[in-house]
Amino acid sequence: MNREGTCNALPTIETERLILRKVTKQDAKDMYAYCSDPAVTKFVTWDTHRSLSDTEAFVEFILTNYKKKDIAPWGMEHKKTGKVIGTIDLASWKPQHQSAEIAYCIHQDFWGEGLTTEAAKAILAFGFTNMDLVRIQARCLVANIGSERVMEKIGMSFEGIIRKGMLVKGRHEDLKLYSILKEEFTAIKCGRLV
Predict the structure, then answer these.
(1) 157-168 and 135-141: which strand pairing?
(2) Is 0.85 topped by the overall pTM?
(3) Could you give the CA distance from residue 31 to residue 143 in angstroms, rounded to a whole number?
(4) Rounded to whole angstroms, how far apart are CA atoms 187 and 1?
(5) Beta bridge pairs of residue 160
(6) Under 8 Å between Cβ of 186 and 158
(7) pLDDT digits (tens, 9 = 90+) for 94-144
(8) Cβ atoms of 57 and 29 closer than 8 Å
């Protein structure tokens, strides 16, 4: 699928406990609940939201990207509560190289429940099946053990440390780089060892 087709038709994806869907203006309060939490924002590249208006601006940015048919995240709606508890996306999509990077963020109340892993597996399947990707990677700050565990649980392989790979909140941070190839994902999905 080409960039315009994929971004224009960002599909709703259902998993066991989540509905991955486009973000709406009505999601701003739900998103503010985790975007304003310093524990959640400790390892992300963006600043902690100080007011609901910060989150509303972020939602507007997402909606603008949808309109421009550019890459933007899925909201992670929890089926039991009907609330958006996080976002997940395939950022840094390079169609010419058939690669992308998965990124995610989730409300602290849902840490350790496997929800990010559940969402990430669904997004990997979408990327490899619908976007003609051959490689999906992920990066995290070296101290972000939770994110690293998600990468391992979805079958990604550790590739190394990118030294001072990103300027984050005024500091050059080392990043851990993980990736998974289409054939590895297919092997895992089919129950074969990679």
Answers:
(1) unpaired
(2) yes
(3) 24
(4) 22
(5) 177
(6) no
(7) 999 999 999 999 999 999 999 999 999 999 999 999 999 999 999 999 999
(8) no
57-62-64 Cα angle (round to 5):
90
Q: How many residues does the chain have?
A: 194
Q: If you search the block for the tokens 């030294």, which residue do you land on?
A: 163
CATH superfamily assigned to domain 3-189: Gcn5-related N-acetyltransferase (GNAT) (3.40.630.30)
Structure tokens at 115: 């929800």
Hey, where are the domains in the chain? 3-189
CA 116 vs CA 24, 107, 153: distances in Å: 20, 10, 10
Average pLDDT over residues 181-187: 95
Interval 50-93: pLDDT, tens: 999 999 999 999 999 999 988 899 999 999 999 999 999 998 89
Residues 6+ apart with CB under 8 A from 50: 36
